[in-house]
Amino acid sequence: MASENTATAASTDAEVADEPESALETARRQLNKAASLIDADPNVVGRLNYPASVHEVTIPLERDDGTVEMYRGYRAHHDGVRGPYKGGLRYHPDVTREESIGLAMWMTWKCAVMDLPFGGAKGGVVVDPKELSDAEMERLTRRFANEIRNLIGPMTDIPAPDMGTDAQTMAWIMDAYSVQEAETIPGVVTGKPPVIGGSEGREEAPGRSVAIVSRELCEYLDRSLADTTVAVQGYGSVGGNAARLLDEWGADVVAVSDVNGAAYDPDGLETASIPLHDEVPGAVTDYGEQTLTNADILELDVDLLVPAAVGNVITEANVDDVRADMVVEGANGPITFGADAVLAERGIPVVPDILANAGGVTVSYFEWLQDINRRSWSRQRVNEELEAEMLDAWNDVRREVDDRGVTWRDATYIVALSRIVDAHEKRGLWP
Ligand code: NAD
Fold it and tell me: How far is 71 from 34, CA to CA, in rounded Å?
């Protein structure tokens, strides 16, 4: 196995602090680290430290009681050198301009590592969706869609669901946009319900890609999946689908958790009979031989740990207690920069989020292809094409790991950044 030791650059930064950083700080740090490893043109890297544009809009919403409230919305475009902007829209009280820029940068790297012809975008509305009725959500969404109508489009910027938004939200945006354009344009958003151009297999896709890279990592390390014990934190869309597939492919899934705690059975859980978080919230702790806390699950002595719930769960405070031999990131940013450096020093391979959960944006790309070609693919075709795309990306990253002796995270960013820098160099700066 190639060396996992890239402590030099990482440990210098880790000395700074292990405060959970903002998405923008993380994205910039990862960009500049990867840039130093490939000797990228500093002029292009300088440009990539900034978004191409950030749009801020005000959305007046008539509440059900007749009063009108103003909400703030953002759409950040980071880099579009490889194609239309792509990224989610979140509805959350913590949405900010800076967070949108940082998350848009992550989308740029994620699309590039998957070699998808998209650039990175992100946005959202500063709102707590739990405080709005369904009718208010619809009015807010349609008005927001109208405010960003000149930015979005199937060849310019294609939003998708994110925290607080879902297939219904995308359906409203597609409808609002289509009404204004006087034609049905399903390719303006992805993550729609299949009946209006959504793709089969989209919901399971991020979990499926987590399972695929976990399987490939085991093979790379000459470990049999059948002899691999797995713990998955977060038994939701990503973690639940990953756990079920790994179980189906023969791994021993010994622990899974939701926000209330974990189910644990050293002989393996029967994941097919444990409902996912959105099927029966809180059901996880009714299963298994024993229950554990969410902190315990990260410290279990398993072969593979998949943190798939929320960000910043493995920090310098608990990283020394992580006993897994391999980590695959299901959630976005579950490991802080400082903790990541410690895992690298310990030689524990960590497959990063932008590769592991990229099945979501990849099937969004398939959805967009289906929409602009007015054809729908079977679930089997979606899954086969996803498998092929994941293996291509995995092999590109694996080659960097082998050739340069860097971590999986650094290798992933090297693949992504090389593609973006190459495209900038070929296209040039105009005027
Ligand atoms: P989800 O809401 O379906 O599931 C989240 C799970 O985590 C639930 O089981 C919940 O109970 C659990 N959880 C929540 N807070 C927790 C906490 N503090 N500690 C432990 N468990 C907790 O969400 P999801 O769609 O599976 O997303 C999970 C992560 O994956 C997020 O970081 C998300 O950004 C990322 N992600 C999701 C997608 C997607 O398309 N669903 C794609 C890429 C990345």
Answer: 37
d(CA 154, CA 160): 12
Give the mean pLDDT of 206-222.
98
Q: Determine the distance separating the centroid of ligand 1 and the alpha carbon of 254, expressed in angstroms.
A: 19
Taken as a whole, the chain contains a residue count of 431
- In 43-84, the DSSP E strands lie at 53-62, 68-79
- Contact between 296 and 223 (Cβ < 8 Å): no
Name the DSSP letter for residue 236.
S
Instruction: Show the tokens assigned to 418.
Output: 């090389």
Domain ranges of the chain: 18-184, 205-351
**Residues 221-248 pLDDT 10s:** 999 999 999 999 999 999 999 999 999 9
Cβ neighbours, 10 Å, residue 29: 16
- In ligand 1, the atom with minimum distance to the C-alpha of 281 is 11
Catalytic residue among 122, 130, 192, 426: 122
Nearest protein Cα to ligand 1, atom 32: 331
357: Cβ contacts below 8 Å, ≥ 6 apart: 206, 209, 210, 238, 329, 330, 331, 332
Q: Is 86 a catalytic residue?
A: no
Q: Where are the alpha helices (DSSP H) in 71-204?
A: 97-113, 134-147, 167-181
Find out whether 217 and 186 touch, Cβ atoms under 8 Å: no
Q: Which of 210, 302, 214 is nearest to 255 (CA)?
A: 302
How many Å apart are CA 217 and CA 395, to the nearest integer? 11
195 Cβ contact partners less than 8 Å away, ≥ 6 residues apart: none
Residues 387-403 have pLDDT tens digits of: 999 999 999 999 999 99
Residues 123, 113, 355, 242: is their CA dihedral positive or negative?
positive
- Does the beta carbon of 129 sit less than 6 angstroms from any atom of ligand 1? no
pLDDT of residue 19: 62
Instruction: Please tell me the CATH code under which domain 18-184 is placed.
Output: 3.40.50.10860
Fold of 205-351: Rossmann fold (3.40.50)
Q: In what order do the strands lie in the sheet with 119-126?
A: 53-62, 68-79, 119-126, 85-92, 157-161
On whether the CB atoms of residues 29 and 21 are closer than 8 A, the answer is yes
